[in-house]
Every structure is written in C-alpha cells, then in structure tokens.
Amino acid sequence: PSELTITWLNTNNSGAVMAKRATLSSATAIRGGADAASTLALSITPNPTSEQTTVRFSLAQPEHVRLALYDVLGREVALLLDAELEAGEHTWSLVVSHWSLVDGSYFLRLQTPTLLLTKPIQVLQ
Predict the structure, then answer these.
(1) Rounded to an integer, what distance in angstroms lies between the CA atom of residue 7 and that of residue 98?
(2) Which end of the chain is more exposed for a tag (fewer CB within 10 A), N or C?
(3) How far apart are CA 98 and CA 111, in angstroms?
(4) 70-123 pLDDT tens trace
(5) For residues 31 and 42, is the Cβ–Cβ distance under 8 A?
(6) Is the peptide bond before 48 cis (omega within 30 degrees of 0)?
(7) Which strand ranges, in their side-by-side order, compose the sheet holding 28-31?
(8) What are the DSSP calls for 39-90, one per residue?
C-alpha cells in the first residue's frame, strides 16, 4: 500500500520542542490529542465502483460525523453525511448516479471532532 511519512515539530507542556513522526497509509486516521497517528477500520466496497459503493466505519464513542466526497482538485462534490452518530459500526451507501459523478479519482473524507480520515475511491462508468 502507498504510504506517506510526515514529520512535524511539537511543543510539550513544559515548552520543549520535540520532533514527531507518523506514517500514513491509504486509510489512515489522525486522532486529536494523541502524539501519533493510528489506523482506523474503514472500508469502501466495491472500489473501484460504477453504480453504488458501501462505506463502513466504526466510532468508539458518540460523535458528530461529517462524511464528504472530494475531487482531485480538493473541491467537495458530495456531502454524504453531517450528523451526530452513536458509538459502534455504521454503514453508508454512495450512489454514483445520485451525485452525477464522472469517471475519475475521488477522496472520501470522514471527519469528527477527534478524527480526520481520507481514503481514495475510483469511479468507473
């Protein structure tokens, strides 16, 4: 799988500057408050898709969730979900024709107050 390593500087409570590093895969979540990134179970099937795809994810606690689709230029092309959800497993369907998506690469972004996750998705008609 594709990976990207990010290094950044962080200041701790005592004012010391420390280097932090995280390796992000194609489905990586960045959790707020923690010192590192961790992988979250997120699936998009089928991917690539031509008609409909199913997005599955889980939440450890009740949170506000925003699930949006972006094109390769970073423009939001579909807001799939923007709501408070309970903890547990969740399933969401993306119907390609409903959003008038053309062939190409997109990015599905799952965002909560404590989590930001992006995963690529391919649409083929």
Answers:
(1) 39
(2) N
(3) 22
(4) 998 889 999 999 999 998 889 988 888 888 888 999 999 998 888 888 889 999
(5) no
(6) yes
(7) 28-31, 115-123, 104-112, 63-71, 76-85
(8) ---EEEESSSBSSEEEEEEEESS-EEEEEEEEETTS-EEEEEEEEEE-SEEE
Q: Do residues 114 and 32 touch, judged by C-beta distance below 8 A?
A: yes
The tokens of 87 are what? 């903890």
Per-residue model confidence as pLDDT tens digits over 38-54 = 335 678 889 898 889 99
State both tokens at 59.
Answer: 């939440």
CB-based contacts of 20, cutoff 8 Å, min separation 6:
7, 8, 9, 10, 35, 36
DSSP state of 32: S
99 SS3 class: helix
CB 76 within 8 A of CB 101: no
How many CA atoms lie within 13 Å of 111's alpha carbon, on the beta-carbon side?
Answer: 10
